[in-house]
Protein 1
Amino acid sequence: MSLDRPSLQSITPWPPRLRLGVNIDHVATIRNARGEGYPDPARAAEIAMAAGADGITAHLREDRRHISDSDIETLAALTRRRGKPLNLEMAVTPEMEAIALAHRPHAACLVPERREEVTTEGGLDVVMLRGRVAPCVAALRAAGVRVSLFIEADPAQIRASADVGAQVVELHTGAYCQAVRERRPEASRLLAALREGAREAAAHGLEVHAGHGIDYETVGPVAAILELAELNIGHFLIGEAIFTGLDPAIRRMRALMDAAKGEVAA
Ligand code: PXP
């Protein structure tokens, strides 16, 4: 073996670069509020990718309150052209499974969905819904879609996610982020649970993502969790874009993620 060959360590950054998936749902929320054709989620996706998003995330809800079927068609074509992954968030229903199989996005994230909720309020109960989740995971995987389950950082849910054949879990950061915003003392306990969940999921061979409710304040502590490979962030970025523009908002989030990872590596 040649002695001047670079060691694996020198060519593989550690910790690995944390990917940013930008969720553009709420561009469609604003569009739909007036029933107009603007603002266009595909334009937001273009700006996001140019600003450093590693992928685009969109949730086609059963009630189509923001993203529409034709948005998914446009986003699937756009991300394919740009060579970036599309992460389709979807409920575990026959209708959504058929749509995912028709578009074959890079990834699908299975989420719980209740029509009366304002946003996804908790993780998917994979333990309870194992009989519904397992066949959906199998069908998506057979079509070449990478399957993620959006769950609470709970040992039983993590084990069940590995059992049903998911390749990825996305840990729900909503409760932690809200506790930080409301300056509640349980924030540190919730962050510790996320850290422990990430460790446990990785030990089960799962790739670990995180998302929901993340803002400039909470992104650092979340990004510093060593096992995380991807964050999915939407609502805060679209809100911030009103004041600063989408490109600077994403660049700042990206920089905060990189800074947190840099501190872990140092
Ligand atoms: N990940 C999942 C699974 C989600 O359901 C959502 C919200 O659609 C997000 C990430 C992004 O959350 P937020 O819009 O609060 O950043």
Protein 2
Amino acid sequence: MSSYDYDLFVIGGGSGGVRAARVAASLGKRVAIAEEYRYGGTCVIRGCVPKKLFVYASQFHEHFEDAEGFGWTVGESSFDWKKLVAAKDAEIARLEGLYKKGLSGANADILETRAELVDAHTVRLMKTGQTVTAKTIIIATGGRPNPHAALPGHEFCISSNEAFHLEELPKSIVIAGGGYIAVEFANIFHGLGVETTLIYRGAEILSRFDEDLRRGLHEAMVAKGIRILCHDTLQKVSKGEDGLTLETMNNGTLQAGVVLLALGRDPNTEGLGLEAAGVAVDERGAIIVDDYSRTNIENIYALGDVTNRVQLTPVAIHEAMCFIETEYKNNPTRPDYDLIPTAVFSLPEIGTVGLSEEEAGKRYDELEVYRAQFRPLKATLSGRAERMIMKLIVDAASRKVVGAHILGHDAGEMAQLLGVTLKAGCTKDDFDQTMALHPTAAEELVTMYAPSYRVRDGQRV
Ligand code: NDP
């Protein structure tokens, strides 16, 4: 029996922290976990899950319109924002309960308090001031929206946190940023009837995605009525009687009911007592870890967004499971960051895994690019002017599929399965030998027989 109060103390009750605590406790370790806000963390409480519920809500308008082409007459429809928020809150509360139930079922001590490090083995529970000790400590405190403090008037803006609890829907919104959150919320608010403008500093939204999909989504969003201002930034936000006035660098003055800043997320490390414990952070405040998520202090690990590696829930959970293998199963395991499937829940949706054409062009001498752009079957009767894009990036030398990119309905669902095929190292021949499933959109992935073009030394030929 060790002299510490606990074998493991986890600070932060989000995806990574809860997983590590629950599994360690189920292995018979004495575990405590502390959370200052709500169990479930960003993903469950004010991220992925409520966002996806909002995405569903925002798409009904298009479904009602599409129904007509299939013979339906849809009566007058209206949308109640407060009802959506209340329904979402009830579901989130249910999920939070399940997270806690999982922890208590495994016999972990659930602490509802902020916790700060006192030294490498001691944690202070801020609610009571009590200190407890642990042999091993995990920091899994996640991240928070970048407040963009340099922007005059940033205090009048909201982040994604507040977007989940707006008292009422504004008539108009300006969203700053061109990443996941900006693009997803632009689609959500537009779908709910809000006049939506996106303002992004770069040449094209979603800088880390395949160029084709970025352009395709941009065009589709503009066609729906979302205004996108690229090569521009907010210079100042001021509040008047009629709402907010925004000065931009290149597009003059804009008016908006709400301004949402979606300019990335910062690691949550302030005031955690990291200096007291001697834990090193980088210039952005992210905890520095080795390949096994261990900090510079032998018994302290850090998982998830607080380490600013890949800010995705499944990655934090995977890091937690690798920690369990490493620390408790005598099986040192490094998180594997290769081929992480990802989706942007816009309308149309992006689903992607592996390298973009641009990245692959830098890595391989020659690529075969298979590309299909087509009108999905449903759009023939709905009359909606939408196009799906599907793209496979193939290393010409090995025939391995190194990237798969989809824009269109259910792209995220397809990307998950494509993730399995790429992870298994499937070649284009494996795709060719797979029977098509007809009639689906996904059958295009196995029926693109000839390359649309080749890329040699990074140049299309
Ligand atoms: P992202 O990193 O995706 O995007 C941040 C955006 O803000 C980029 O367009 C960036 O521009 C821009 N930006 C950053 N700083 C400034 C600045 N000072 N002035 C102007 N523009 C700026 O972050 P998000 O906030 O959208 O999302 C945070 C993370 O959450 C993501 O990285 C993602 O991992 C995760 N997430 C995942 C989702 C999913 O899986 N579907 C959904 C939502 C979030 P530039 O591109 O030029 O750098």
